[in-house]
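Why do we care about 3D structure at all? Because function follows from shape, and shape follows, mostly, from sequence. That is the central idea of this module. The next example makes it concrete: a single protein chain, its amino acid sequence, and then its structure expressed as C-alpha coordinates.
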Amino acid sequence: MRMLQNVPIFGGVREDILELLLEGAAEISLAKGDYLFVENDSGDTMYVLEEGEVAVLKLWNKVYYQLNCLSVGDCVGEMSLIDLGRRSASVLALTNCTAIELTNAQLLKVYEKDIEQFALIQMNIGRELSRRLRIANDTVFRALIKSKQIPVH
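And the structure:
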Protein backbone atom coordinates (compact mmCIF):
# COMPACT_ATOMS: atom_id res chain seq x y z
CA MET A 1 0.00 0.00 0.00
CA ARG A 2 2.73 2.47 0.98
CA MET A 3 4.69 1.76 -2.17
CA LEU A 4 1.65 2.45 -4.37
CA GLN A 5 1.05 5.75 -2.58
CA ASN A 6 4.54 6.82 -3.69
CA VAL A 7 4.03 5.81 -7.36
CA PRO A 8 3.20 8.91 -9.45
CA ILE A 9 0.30 7.16 -11.22
CA PHE A 10 -1.41 6.70 -7.86
CA GLY A 11 -0.55 10.12 -6.41
CA GLY A 12 -3.55 11.58 -4.60
CA VAL A 13 -5.57 8.37 -4.87
CA ARG A 14 -7.46 7.53 -1.68
CA GLU A 15 -6.45 4.53 0.41
CA ASP A 16 -9.80 2.73 -0.07
CA ILE A 17 -9.35 2.93 -3.86
CA LEU A 18 -5.80 1.58 -3.62
CA GLU A 19 -7.15 -1.28 -1.48
CA LEU A 20 -9.77 -1.97 -4.16
CA LEU A 21 -7.04 -2.15 -6.80
CA LEU A 22 -4.88 -4.43 -4.66
CA GLU A 23 -7.77 -6.81 -3.86
CA GLY A 24 -7.67 -8.31 -7.32
CA ALA A 25 -4.01 -7.72 -8.05
CA ALA A 26 -1.65 -10.57 -8.72
CA GLU A 27 1.99 -10.53 -7.72
CA ILE A 28 4.25 -11.59 -10.56
CA SER A 29 7.72 -13.04 -9.96
CA LEU A 30 10.40 -12.97 -12.65
CA ALA A 31 13.82 -14.54 -12.63
CA LYS A 32 16.72 -12.61 -14.11
CA GLY A 33 16.47 -13.04 -17.90
CA ASP A 34 12.68 -13.59 -17.99
CA TYR A 35 10.43 -11.35 -20.07
CA LEU A 36 7.51 -9.63 -18.36
CA PHE A 37 6.01 -9.18 -21.83
CA VAL A 38 7.21 -9.05 -25.42
CA GLU A 39 6.74 -6.37 -28.06
CA ASN A 40 3.49 -6.83 -30.03
CA ASP A 41 1.85 -8.97 -27.33
CA SER A 42 -1.71 -7.89 -26.61
CA GLY A 43 -1.93 -5.83 -23.47
CA ASP A 44 -4.59 -5.09 -20.89
CA THR A 45 -2.38 -4.85 -17.81
CA MET A 46 0.21 -2.62 -16.26
CA TYR A 47 2.81 -3.54 -13.68
CA VAL A 48 4.33 -1.75 -10.70
CA LEU A 49 7.80 -2.98 -9.83
CA GLU A 50 8.10 -3.98 -6.16
CA GLU A 51 11.61 -5.42 -6.38
CA GLY A 52 14.32 -5.58 -9.00
CA GLU A 53 15.21 -3.87 -12.22
CA VAL A 54 13.95 -4.31 -15.78
CA ALA A 55 15.08 -3.13 -19.21
CA VAL A 56 12.62 -1.77 -21.77
CA LEU A 57 13.75 -3.09 -25.16
CA LYS A 58 12.80 -2.37 -28.77
CA LEU A 59 13.46 -4.92 -31.53
CA TRP A 60 14.98 -3.70 -34.81
CA ASN A 61 16.45 -6.00 -37.48
CA LYS A 62 16.51 -8.93 -35.05
CA VAL A 63 18.51 -6.94 -32.47
CA TYR A 64 17.15 -5.58 -29.17
CA TYR A 65 17.99 -1.98 -28.23
CA GLN A 66 17.53 -0.74 -24.68
CA LEU A 67 15.21 2.26 -24.40
CA ASN A 68 15.07 2.55 -20.64
CA CYS A 69 15.84 0.90 -17.34
CA LEU A 70 13.16 0.82 -14.62
CA SER A 71 13.35 -0.10 -10.95
CA VAL A 72 11.33 -0.27 -7.73
CA GLY A 73 8.24 1.95 -7.83
CA ASP A 74 8.27 2.39 -11.61
CA CYS A 75 5.34 1.36 -13.79
CA VAL A 76 5.45 -0.43 -17.10
CA GLY A 77 2.69 -1.35 -19.53
CA GLU A 78 0.43 1.57 -18.64
CA MET A 79 0.05 2.57 -22.32
CA SER A 80 -2.13 -0.48 -22.90
CA LEU A 81 -4.57 0.73 -20.24
CA ILE A 82 -5.08 3.92 -22.22
CA ASP A 83 -5.06 2.86 -25.88
CA LEU A 84 -5.77 -0.89 -25.58
CA GLY A 85 -2.99 -1.39 -28.13
CA ARG A 86 -0.35 -4.04 -28.45
CA ARG A 87 2.85 -3.81 -26.44
CA SER A 88 5.19 -1.22 -27.97
CA ALA A 89 8.33 -2.77 -26.44
CA SER A 90 9.58 -5.80 -24.55
CA VAL A 91 10.40 -5.77 -20.84
CA LEU A 92 13.26 -7.98 -19.63
CA ALA A 93 14.17 -8.68 -16.00
CA LEU A 94 17.77 -7.57 -15.36
CA THR A 95 17.56 -8.99 -11.83
CA ASN A 96 15.08 -11.19 -9.99
CA CYS A 97 11.91 -9.09 -9.80
CA THR A 98 8.45 -8.94 -8.32
CA ALA A 99 5.69 -6.74 -9.67
CA ILE A 100 2.06 -5.99 -8.94
CA GLU A 101 -0.15 -6.70 -11.95
CA LEU A 102 -3.08 -4.32 -12.42
CA THR A 103 -5.68 -5.03 -15.10
CA ASN A 104 -8.28 -3.07 -17.03
CA ALA A 105 -10.90 -5.03 -15.09
CA GLN A 106 -9.55 -3.67 -11.81
CA LEU A 107 -9.64 -0.12 -13.17
CA LEU A 108 -13.24 -0.72 -14.25
CA LYS A 109 -14.07 -1.49 -10.61
CA VAL A 110 -12.59 1.87 -9.63
CA TYR A 111 -14.68 3.53 -12.36
CA GLU A 112 -17.83 1.86 -11.01
CA LYS A 113 -17.07 2.83 -7.40
CA ASP A 114 -15.76 6.38 -7.80
CA ILE A 115 -15.50 8.06 -11.19
CA GLU A 116 -13.48 10.97 -9.76
CA GLN A 117 -10.78 8.65 -8.44
CA PHE A 118 -10.83 6.81 -11.79
CA ALA A 119 -10.36 10.14 -13.59
CA LEU A 120 -7.47 11.00 -11.26
CA ILE A 121 -5.71 7.72 -12.08
CA GLN A 122 -6.26 8.31 -15.81
CA MET A 123 -4.88 11.87 -15.51
CA ASN A 124 -1.87 10.57 -13.61
CA ILE A 125 -1.23 7.93 -16.28
CA GLY A 126 -1.48 10.69 -18.90
CA ARG A 127 1.05 12.79 -16.99
CA GLU A 128 3.47 9.87 -16.74
CA LEU A 129 3.13 9.12 -20.45
CA SER A 130 3.67 12.80 -21.23
CA ARG A 131 6.79 12.87 -19.04
CA ARG A 132 8.18 9.83 -20.84
CA LEU A 133 7.32 11.32 -24.24
CA ARG A 134 9.24 14.48 -23.37
CA ILE A 135 12.28 12.37 -22.47
CA ALA A 136 11.92 10.35 -25.69
CA ASN A 137 11.61 13.55 -27.76
CA ASP A 138 14.77 14.92 -26.19
CA THR A 139 16.61 11.64 -26.83
CA VAL A 140 15.53 11.60 -30.48
CA PHE A 141 16.51 15.25 -30.87
CA ARG A 142 19.97 14.65 -29.42
CA ALA A 143 20.46 11.66 -31.73
CA LEU A 144 19.43 13.77 -34.73
CA ILE A 145 21.79 16.62 -33.97
CA LYS A 146 24.65 14.18 -33.51
CA SER A 147 23.95 12.51 -36.86
CA LYS A 148 23.14 15.53 -39.00
CA GLN A 149 21.96 19.08 -38.95
CA ILE A 150 18.46 19.76 -40.20
CA PRO A 151 18.00 23.12 -41.98
CA VAL A 152 15.18 25.32 -40.71
CA HIS A 153 12.93 26.86 -43.39
